[in-house]
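Supplementary Text 2. Reproducibility record for the structural model of the 702-residue chain.

All settings were left at their defaults, and a single model was retained for analysis rather than an ensemble. We include the record here because the model underlies the residue-level annotations in Supplementary Table 4.
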Amino acid sequence: MSRSRSWRSGAIALVGLALAPGVLAAQAPCGAGAAEAAYRRGKEILAHGEAKIPSPWGILNFLTIWEDLRGAVGKDYLSRARDAFDRAVACDSTHAGAASELAALAVASREGDALRDAAAALRAATAAPGAPAELWLWRSRVAGALGDTAVGGYIARYRAAGGDAAMAHLLAARAAFEAGRDSAGVRQYLAGLDGPSKLAVEAYYEDLSPIAREAERAEWGALDTDSARGEWIRRFWARRAAESGVGVGERVAEHYHRLRVALERYRRTSRREANITDPEAIRLQYHVDGLDDRGVIYLLHGAPDTIIRTVAATLPNESWYYRRPGGGFMLHFVSPNRTSEFMLFPDPLRALGPRLQDTCLSDQCVDRVLAILEDRAPFEPRFGQLAARYRRTVMLSKNEPTPQELEAAVRDLGLAEQTLAADVAQATTRALSRDSFTPDLGAPLPFYYDTYAFRGDGGRTDLVVALAVPGRELEASPGESGVLYGLNMDVVVTDTAAGRSFRADSQRVYRAAQALGAGENLRAVLELELPPGKGYSHHVAVRAAGRKAGTAYGGPLGVDAFSGDTLMMSDLVLAEGAGKGWKRDGVDLGLVPPRQFPQGAVITLFYEVYNAKPESEFRTTLRVVPMAGSGLGGALKKLFGKDPAPISLSFTEQAHPSAAGVMQVVRRVDLRTLEPGTYRIEVTTTGGGAEVRRSREFAVIK
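Retained model, structure tokens:
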């Protein structure tokens, strides 16, 4: 059989030949037991593993230069193991163990020649009567890696030969995802979890383990039954789907698409165990065998929205920028050895190669520094700020400064560079600690949303999410008596610490007499009930029905607790003066998520007070203050003890709470005294020796 070699250079090849004499020696003729002996020799080579370089404190334990040199001439441990298995099948074409090992090595390497050689070995081995099921399993995997359409038939033969039913479902799922048949892949994937076996759950976990987090790995290790592991895999994908605001099937399919691309584009050719340089990643052993650092990040976050390369830099480099709800992030890769393998670094200036700080004021060095920084500045403004500082320092150096002035400027420049690198390193660690998926929703569909928290039942919190989609952003469809608008809306709240998620979704069709114009919105309200906590993240998505358009927003979310017997207040709700559409215990309100009200309007303020004692007196102060500051006039009013708020009310009332200790408050607020601008409404309630305060921002528009 033929096999491809990875010849790095003539010089390395000569070194490898010198290190491995006899590499071209002819194999001895096959004799009795030769196939089994060669097979066992291959297994021993694999068990021994690759060579390591002894070094003080293990500093070089991850660097296997010796093994790289041997790999250049096919004498690394993997190549020698293949040689042994090749020898075994050459002496006995029906040797199932050797054919399976060749297939396993080929699937791991994804090298075309190795896959074709393995396919030939498997074809010969499965021609023997009573070929074991394992051979058909490997034949399906090799066929899938080669894009062979016969993979389905091999899976059927695996089943017929007594292969594991759950494993057959996973094999079929992998093949379907490889072929782009996502719906079929999801059905097969989930079917394999209905009655999982030990073989299947281990294979399922192997596929998802590159994106499993530290706590999740610990959870997996604590499980002791196959059924519990199967349920854990379902929960794992449910969490991932909730975090992304998509269905489980879509998230699973995305993962397998990422696996395929990463293995095709970002494979390592050296034998280094891990390239990820982030300390946290090394602590967590955050690497994936066979992939360079770009491949690891691709599995975690998918294709970047933008790739930035600086040709003027000394070393090949790439920066990947990801747009995400709540803020984007950028990761930086450099190829220190000018190969196709890239390593992740927190500082993109590593693309300059080995350099000294005092040499970077030379024109050539500064030009390269500025090129790197300014290429990335549109996506991260701090790189632009550092570039400006470099320019100022260079200008100072050319104006004959004193040595002390130049030394101070260079020191400040170095400090600024180190500070930015430290900040970027933190962002890199965060990116490595989680995976993400933002589905392609198509054309942008901007919308407004607002959240309000109230006391729920059983110590939980009612979270109300109000949405408004501007009519000018939508396309109407003709209806029987006007026009129709279709919207799909999803709200997902995830407890990132516990791995729990809560979801509310709605598909609605709106009818209107005519197409909506400027200032007209479609509105909806979605509600969730969840335990209070501060470690939540949320995801709100709106998609247009019938066309590829949508937008998702989100970020961290704190969910207040309203349990206990002390005085408490819900969030403030600002609603239309006479609007309707959302009811809470008999109060009907027209919610306004943009919180924008026309000048001169009278609006409704709604909130709930909890645990006020019946018939007790409580005092409420309501103030509306401008967000932009009160200016000189306001300062003078404060100086003479006057309240600068354009609206300020105080009143004392008697509490009449419900049997559950809830008192609903509805007030009208006249905005006619307010000029257009941004304001904050503040409500303070005092009673029984306690005080609670809430505020909300809003805008007055012409």
